[in-house]
């Protein structure tokens, strides 16, 4: 692994490599940005580069230090992650105990703190003291999706580096280079803001089948078939967690957007290109206005999944809204509540 393998974060990588090259590394960094955009990968790469015996601004991946850090068994490079919902003061005390001795003179200790916004106030204050009174050369890297949730006293001692959400193009190209089929890589890229999440999605067994089920469900919805409601129970919700239900709605939205592009004559490459023949068939059943109404219904259902309503009730309401319009949905509201 090299800094060159970190996708879509060229500015941040350039800053870190310049710091390594000119020996101007900060004693603490805060890597902030969406989940799955390479923050943790960059932190481990920095840890290797700081301790690499062969290179000054990257990691060789061959020396003893690089290999030990890569395999997570270097005694001077540690990751701290939440235990349960928070990072607790006892974890920081244990960290200080582990680092109470003096390391070898050519070693830079690195602490990587995952979900740093989840530190309790006591843990954050303990870390602050540790940063202000280091026992040896040390770099702390805080990883967070919400830097504002970290205590200002901690933030003020960190160099802030922002990681940007990756474009679908960046994600799809990276997945293709890893051997993912181009059509599926493109779909996964549009479902995620980061490479890690997209990789997790597309490598799950049944990802292509889920796409096909959602496309078939779309056909049932637009035809007005009652099978669209049966599909909710037998396929969309069958043995699926809430995350897969959310993915199903995201796929449905992408599919409807592709059809809308066809309907209005926009010459753009469809996201779900693998199923172009089915898309052309379904396109003849939709009108542009009905697609817009349907996409609004899907987005509303996606938001409702974060609330207290049961997914089955939400999905049934969405299907009936698309099939019958808003008036029909209001007239059946009691049946939704009963089904939840």
Write the topology of this structure.
Elements: H1 10-21, E1 28-32, H2 39-51, H3 64-70, E2 77-80, H4 89-98, E3 109-113, H5 121-132, E4 138-144, H6 152-155, E5 159-162, H7 168-177, H8 182-191, H9 195-202, H10 207-223, H11 227-236, H12 242-263, H13 276-283, H14 288-304, H15 311-331, H16 333-339
Parallel strand pairs: 1-4, 1-5, 2-3, 3-4
Helix pairs in contact: 2-3, 4-5, 7-8, 8-9, 10-11, 10-12, 11-15, 12-13, 12-14, 14-15, 15-16
Number of domains: 2
Summed up, the helix count is: 16
Helix vs. strand class: alpha/beta
CATH class of the largest domain: Alpha Beta
Cα gyration radius (Å): 25 Å
Task: Using the 3D structure, state the CATH architecture of the largest domain.
Answer: 3-Layer(aba) Sandwich
Please give the order of strands in the largest beta sheet: 2-3-4-1-5
Distance between the termini: 49 Å
Strand content: 5-15%
Helix content: 55-70%
User: What is the fold named in CATH at topology level of the largest domain?
Assistant: Rossmann fold
Please state the overall shape, judged from the principal axes of the Cα atoms.
elongated
**How many strands, which pairing sense, and closed or not: the largest β-sheet?**
5 strands, parallel
């Amino acid at each position: 692994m090299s800094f060159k393998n970190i996708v879509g974060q060229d500015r941040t990588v350039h800053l870190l490599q310049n710091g390594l090259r000119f020996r101007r590394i900060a004693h603490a960094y805060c890597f902030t940005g969406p989940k799955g955009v390479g923050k943790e990968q960059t932190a481990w790469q920095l840890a290797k580069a700081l301790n690499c015996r062969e290179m000054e601004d990257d990691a060789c991946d061959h020396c003893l230090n690089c290999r030990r850090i890569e395999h997570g068994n270097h005694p001077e490079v540690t990751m701290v992650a939440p235990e349960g919902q928070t990072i607790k003061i006892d974890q920081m005390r244990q960290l200080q105990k582990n680092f109470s001795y003096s390391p070898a003179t050519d070693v830079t200790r690195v602490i990587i703190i995952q979900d740093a916004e989840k530190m309790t106030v006591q843990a954050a204050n303990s870390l602050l003291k540790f940063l202000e009174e280091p026992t040896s050369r040390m770099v702390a890297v805080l990883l967070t999706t919400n830097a504002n949730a970290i205590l200002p006293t901690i933030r003020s001692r960190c160099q802030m580096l922002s990681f940007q959400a990756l474009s679908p193009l960046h994600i799809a190209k990276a997945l293709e280079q890893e051997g993912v089929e181009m059509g599926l890589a493109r779909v996964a890229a549009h479902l995620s803001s980061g490479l890690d999440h997209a990789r997790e999605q597309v490598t799950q067994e049944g990802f292509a089948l889920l796409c096909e089920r959602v496309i078939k469900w779309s056909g049932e919805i637009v035809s007005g078939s009652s099978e669209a409601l049966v599909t909710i129970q037998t396929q969309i919700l069958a043995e699926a967690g809430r995350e897969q239900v959310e993915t199903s709605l995201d796929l449905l939205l992408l599919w409807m957007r592709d059809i809308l592009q066809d309907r209005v004559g926009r010459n753009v490459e469809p996201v779900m290109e693998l199923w172009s023949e089915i898309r052309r068939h379904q396109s003849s059943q939709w009108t542009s206005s009905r697609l817009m109404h349907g996409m609004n219904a899907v987005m509303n259902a996606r938001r409702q999944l974060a609330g207290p309503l049961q997914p089955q009730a939400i999905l049934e309401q969405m299907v009936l809204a698309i099939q019958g319009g808003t008036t029909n949905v209001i007239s059946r509201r009691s049946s939704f509540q009963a089904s939840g």
